[in-house]
Design brief:
The structure is a homodimer. The first copy, chain A, is built from 13 helices and 15 strands. By secondary structure, chain A is of the alpha/beta class. The first copy, chain A, folds into 4 domains: 84 residues, Chorismate mutase (Chorismate Mutase Domain, subunit A), CATH 1.20.59.10; 93 residues, D-Maltodextrin-Binding Protein, domain 2 (3-Layer(aba) Sandwich); 83 residues, D-Maltodextrin-Binding Protein, domain 2 (3-Layer(aba) Sandwich), CATH 3.40.190.10; 91 residues, 2-Layer Sandwich (Alpha-Beta Plaits). In chain A, strands 1, 2, 3, 4, 5 and 11 form a 6-stranded mixed β-sheet that branches. Chain A has a 5-stranded mixed β-sheet with strand order 8-7-9-6-10. At the A-B interface, helix 2, helix 3, helix 4 and helix 11 of A face helix 2, helix 3, helix 4, strand 2 and helix 11 of B.
Chain lengths: 372, 372
Amino acid sequence: MSESNQTPSKADETELLQLRQEIDQLDQEILNLISRRAQCALRVAEVKMKADPGQAVFYRPEREAQVLSRVMERNPGPLGNEDMARLFREIMSACLALERPLEVAYLGPEGTFTQQAAKKHFGQWVKTKPMPAIDEVFREVDAGAVQYGVVPIENSTEGVVNHTLDTFITSNIKIVGEVELRIHHHLMAGPNTNRDKITRVYSHQQSLAQCRKWLDAHMPQAERIAVNSNAEAARRVQGEWNSAAIAGEMASELYDLEIIETKIEDSPDNSTRFLIIGAQEVDTSGADKTSLVVSMRNEPGALYHLLKPFNDFGVDMTRLESRPSPSGNWTYVFFIDFVGHTRDANVQEALSAIRKTAVEVKVLGSYPKGVL
Amino acid sequence: MSESNQTPSKADETELLQLRQEIDQLDQEILNLISRRAQCALRVAEVKMKADPGQAVFYRPEREAQVLSRVMERNPGPLGNEDMARLFREIMSACLALERPLEVAYLGPEGTFTQQAAKKHFGQWVKTKPMPAIDEVFREVDAGAVQYGVVPIENSTEGVVNHTLDTFITSNIKIVGEVELRIHHHLMAGPNTNRDKITRVYSHQQSLAQCRKWLDAHMPQAERIAVNSNAEAARRVQGEWNSAAIAGEMASELYDLEIIETKIEDSPDNSTRFLIIGAQEVDTSGADKTSLVVSMRNEPGALYHLLKPFNDFGVDMTRLESRPSPSGNWTYVFFIDFVGHTRDANVQEALSAIRKTAVEVKVLGSYPKGVL
């Protein structure tokens, strides 16, 4: 049989060579298409500049969301939908930087996760600017020093970021997008710590709760000590020999700890939500959310009156948070997220019904649902 | 004139719509081509696994360098060559993760820049693992716990990273690649510091030197104080009211400082070089470098004898560093980088000439020159 005489490695080598040539050919085509895409993006910028030199807006959140959703719908594989969308995010990011580099302020120090969120949302080509406080991110956007800001809003280990909510009450800045980051918990300790001799595990109370099953199975004898934050846990462990902390990867780098075990969270969908803020109003993308602040008088049935129109007009509420009113005059302030855009007919009906009973209704923005 | 009757905004809108349709069409084609590329990559992995299930190597540094160089050569614009190469880096990174996710150890804490270098070299799909010390990065690669490591080798503010050099002397790990990061210097201070009242500027001596012109022009009255590192400068400024630090963006985040002025370095090409280390030997890419360690006896003319063969055989030396020998027996150790691959004829001739006079010659690796 002549076939069996052919050594497999020779046939394999021939196939590898062919595959490489095919990849080179594909790369050439991808190169040309991305270049044509960039050319189109430049032309879009020219047309916009000609039409309105002062006010031309190059970044359109609803358009980006549509492109990414379509890519995910049509993706034939073998790359995962999210992987493919991330690649298109970068292609759009590079094309946009060609029109005009996007500048984005974000909550700096503790929140290196916030910078990660900014890069995830805008791609690697965005210029990010760290700010020391949430209200300074708002101010920077308000002053036009940057086009957008990124602030944390919900954190599965720390709960809602109240400071962000409060800043919205007094600001005219809009929400133009949202982004989620999956956050993993790792067990970490100093380089001299022996895993078998760990007697204490520090972390934020919610992180300890989220890793309960793992701790029960692998460290049943270790005492669990709740501290203010995961970063605080990591900092403490630095100076102790028999202790470990549960925290994110960034904390292990900051405090020079070794990761003993990765991803020990019981539920794999531990995530933090961030908002993209800006001065512009966003068009419908087809899959949108809207955020509101509503002030209600503190009287019987107030909450029922607030919620009824959502139900009446088929508007799907996804979140409701109450906060004491900053003016303090016996009113409640509610933060509400729902599915839909203020240009949708049922949303408009619900809003006008709410406006009849509420002291004040402020739309923080309609924006595309986070795609990635 | 009928043309002038047509409002420009209507014509513009039509063109914008057409451009968007064209972009959507291009995206569809790009999507299909990237998917076909991923399919090819998967098939490559299958063939390699069939041929050599235990030892199959999926990441080929010379092949990646070739792809990126070709992309940059053929790039028709308008995207810059580096931008286009970064996009292809991500496409390759996503395809490679499909075959088998790449794991890379890097020097952790101080060197968050090192992680940045790892992502720049391997793309966003790589899994990075922080290690507390350079020799632990080597050990992790040696043990096969990760496929590659990333360590700093030259830093324009700190000079050569001697610890990395020394570790190569005793290790069998090879250099498989190099990557450069451009590093910017910013002036930063605490949030309560008034720019006009700054009387002291802290930084590493070399950073102060690199920002001399800017300091002369804008802060001639401020005292310049050299400290151990830029991170140390940032840490100090935290507690002082009239002081500023010169450091990188990461330091401002870590120590909660505000950036007063960005990119104050006199020369814009301030950069840090990192090495990619691994167990494999790398084929020629066509644009390679080689690194050597040579031990010489301390006798008259030793350095001349070492350098002459490079000149004789037309080998272009790019770096020469001398270090005291760790064995301490009156020998010198030289670290040499030159252009070329150990498979090149002239390199082989030069090496055999050097071997005649040197106590020991150790090739640390031939690897593709950094493309990005």
